Amino acid sequence: MTDSSDLGVERTLVVLKPDAVTRGLAGRILTRFEDANLKIVGVKMKQMDADFARKHYFDLEERLGAEVYNSTAGFMQSNPVMAVVLEGVNAVTTVRKIIGATLPSEAAPGTVRGDFAHQTKASADVSGKAVMNLVHASGNVEEAKYEVNLWFGEDEQFDYETAAEKLAY
Ligand SMILES: Nc1ncnc2c1ncn2[C@@H]1O[C@H](COP(=O)(O)OP(=O)(O)OP(=O)(O)O)[C@@H](O)[C@H]1O
Fold first, then answer.
1. Of the candidates 58, 85, 119, 169, which lies 20 to 30 Å from 5 by C-alpha distance?
2. Residue identifier of the C-alpha nearest atom 19 of ligand 1
3. Tell me: the pLDDT tens digits for 81-93?
C-alpha cells in the first residue's frame, strides 16, 4: 500500500495577514490554493500577541534586524489573522509559488501578492514600515513542521478525502 508521504504529500502553514482579512480578500486568496489542488485540513482565526509573534517569527530579528522585526510583529498584531493548514503534493513549494515574492513591488502578476498586495498611504499610516504583503507561508518543509505545530494542535487538523481524491484512487 502506498503511504501518502511516498507521493510527496506535505502540510504547510499559510497565514492570511491583517491586510488580507480587513480587505475581505480571504475567500479570493483561499480559492487560489484550492484551485491548485491544495486541501484545507485546518483553519482558525487568531488575534496574535507579542509572545506568539515572537514564536512565529523567531528568527526574523536575527535575519533582517530589529526594525523589520518590530514593524512586522506590530502589523501582525494590528488585527486578527486567519491561519490555514494546506495539504498536497509539494505543498510547501507550490504555496510559495502561488503567493509570489516577499516584496509586493517584486511579486509577479498572477501571484497573490503581485495581484493584490498594493500598498496604500492609509495602510502605511497604520503599520509604519511593515510590508503589507497579505500572506505568510512556510519557507521550507522543516519550517512548515514547526509552524503547523505552533499554530495547530493534532485535534485541529483533519484527515478526509476530497471528491477529486475519491475519483483518482
Ligand atoms: N526588506 C524588508 N523590509 C521590510 N519588511 C520586510 C522586508 N523583508 C521582509 N519583511 C517582512 O518580514 C516578513 C518575513 O520576511 P521573510 O524574509 O521571511 O519573507 P517571506 O518568507 O516571504 O514572508 P513571510 O514569512 O511573511 O511569509 C515579510 O513578510 C515582511 O512582512
1. 58
2. 102
3. 999 999 999 999 9
Structural domain spans, the chain: 4-168
| Residue 56 annotated to the active site | no
Q: Per the confidence metrics, is the pTM higher than 0.90?
A: yes
Atom 31 (ligand 1): residue with closest C-alpha?
131
Task: Please tell me the distance from the alpha carbon of residue 25 to that of residue 45, in angstroms, as a whole number.
Answer: 14
Q: Is the CB of 60 under 6 A from ligand 1?
A: yes
Q: Is the dihedral of CA 142, 50, 158, 92 positive or negative?
A: negative
Can you identify the CATH homologous superfamily of domain 4-168? Nucleoside diphosphate kinase-like domain (3.30.70.141)
The cell 495577514 sits on which residue? 17
Q: Give me ligand 1 centre to Cα 15, in Å.
A: 13
Instruction: Give me the interface pTM, i.e. the ipTM.
Output: 0.92
Q: Where are the beta strands (DSSP E) in the chain?
A: 9-16, 39-46, 81-89, 135-137
